[in-house]
Amino acid sequence: MENQPNIEELKSKINYGIKFWLEFEGKSILGSGWAELLKSIEKNKEGSLTQAAKECNYSYKYAWNILKRIEKRTGNPVVITGKGGRGGGGWVRLNNWGKFLLDIYREYLNEIRKIEEKLKETIKID
Amino acid sequence: MENQPNIEELKSKINYGIKFWLEFEGKSILGSGWAELLKSIEKNKEGSLTQAAKECNYSYKYAWNILKRIEKRTGNPVVITGKGGRGGGGWVRLNNWGKFLLDIYREYLNEIRKIEEKLKETIKID
User: Fold this and answer.
1) What ipTM score was computed for the predicted complex, to two decimals?
2) Nearby residues of B34 by Cβ (< 8 Å), 6 or more positions away
3) Whole-angstrom distance, CA of residue B38 vs CA of residue A34
4) What class has domain B27-125?
């Protein structure tokens, strides 16, 4: 008899790693970090980019650059900006393109979570 | 009216990127490249690692190192080796642990492909 590894003992230590992102014409435009920023902007009722950036541990400038990069890569902005608001510095909101990308990303995330559940079960049952 | 991007035009250019791998106690043990090697070993009836490596565009040494790395990270070998065979240099076969990891990886891959189909439909239909 061959001396084979004991799979029952080993399999509980197996896990999955996954990374996913949206692309536009082959360029990465939305992974987990950038999606977090769009979510924070969506959630922020006052339209404060400073606040939304802070929630992601980004500086205002870094967050603004992310928005500009997505705009550059897709050829279209993902936010509408305006002057005024509580801080006086202007507000920012997702436009329909920003919302669309975030929705698609969320759907993707949900599907990924479903597989993860399924696979965890598979390992336990088999 | 706000001037908003035309989503119908844009959405056909969206795609998905995904990377996934198996981990063992938090260490990466099997991504697409290493899984290819295990598949080639499984397929190779003569147990030739030279041949299996070649199919993956790896050198014999590189392929052997991959097997050793998986062994180190999981604390168990993924192959059984022996002497003799057509080339005279010895043969290599997946053991039960190597087969198990490859099977789990394949299931993962299948589930991922299913989501991809689903998401492609979503984008087209919505």
Assistant:
1) 0.82
2) B66, B70
3) 35
4) mainly alpha
Outline where A44-95 has alpha helix (H).
Answer: 49-55, 60-74
- Best of A2, A6, A11, A14 to substitute, by most chain B Cβ atoms within 10 angstroms, is A14
Predicted TM-score of the model (pTM): 0.78
Query: B5 and A123: CB-CB below 8 Å?
Result: no
Kindly determine whether residue B13 and residue A28, on different chains, have CB atoms separated by under 8 Å.
no
Residue A69: Cβ-neighbour burial (10 angstroms; 0-12, 13-18, 19+): middle
Mention every residue, 6+ apart, whose C-beta is less than 8 A from residue B121: none
Domain topology for A25-125: Arc Repressor Mutant, subunit A (1.10.10)
Q: In the numeric block, which tokens belong to residue A86?
A: 């509580």
| Cross-strand pairs, B24 | A14, B27
What's the pLDDT band for A2 if we cut at 50, 70, 90?
A: low
Q: Enter the tokens of residue A38.
A: 């769009």
